[in-house]
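Thread: sanity check for a docking pose with LXAUTJHC

Original post by kr_44:
Hi all, I'm comparing my docking run against an independent structure prediction. Below are the sequence and the ligand SMILES. Could someone generate the full complex and paste the structure tokens? I mainly care about where the ligand ends up relative to the chain.
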Amino acid sequence: MKMQAERLTVIEPLPLPLHEKLFDDGEQLALALARQVAADLRAALARHGEASIALSGGNTPKRFFQLLSQQTLDWARVTVLPIDERWVPAEHPRSNERLLREHLFQNNAAVARFLPLYRPVDTPEMALMPVLTKIANEGLPLDVAVLGMGEDGHTASLFPDLGHDNPALREIGLQPRGRAPVMSVRTAAMPEPRMTLTLSAIFTAPALYLHIEGESKRAVLDAARSDPRSTLPIRAALAGASNAPTLYWSP
Ligand SMILES: O=C1O[C@H](COP(=O)(O)O)[C@@H](O)[C@H](O)[C@H]1O
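Reply from moderator J.T.:
Ran it for you. Here is the predicted complex with LXAUTJHC included:
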């Protein structure tokens, strides 16, 4: 009797789900994202009379913030939170609060309400309880969150050297309620400590966007999306979101 040869089929894992909006340049991207976020905020205002949005910092979102600030909506009923903050005074060039003040809180958005993560004390740990309470009571749940990503695959202030078994990343899949909304972060990758919204807090937003620009970040994102062994925080953020985020990308 002839033995039948065994055939092995290798099944490639599917990349994590992501909606994609691709643009030719950062200007077009910024305008489309500003219009989309403004529409989300208007819808939230119509639903419950107020709206809450968490926004990333860094260099990428400047143009988006400027265009968002020009959108017509009832900004006085909108609360804005930084997704993360570097522990430097609000006037410091590396402050995400400063970025928001200079680029978002102008034009129509000048009247928006701001919930800072930074407090003028020496360490983020010293401010953790008051900030946590304020954010939990007055900032959450979010209506909209816009994540960014660094070249190293960090998102918010969740850095690769936190370790993939860190509670901040292990919380994937757990219910948002009952989880701490903010945490302090110390990473060798950055010169100062930080405070960040946790994934639990970020995932309270039904409208979740990822804004990245450039080919090299795109390659990091695609690799993290496709590789189930990836321990990059951006993969944790994609894996844990109950609604697939929408990527806004331009070269
Ligand atoms: O440090 C940070 O980096 C990321 C990415 O910033 P970018 O300058 O590469 O655009 C940002 O999303 C985060 O909010 C920020 O604090």
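The helical segments are 26-48, 62-69, 96-103, 124-138, 167-170, 199-202, 215-226, 233-240. Hope that helps with the comparison, let us know if your pose agrees.
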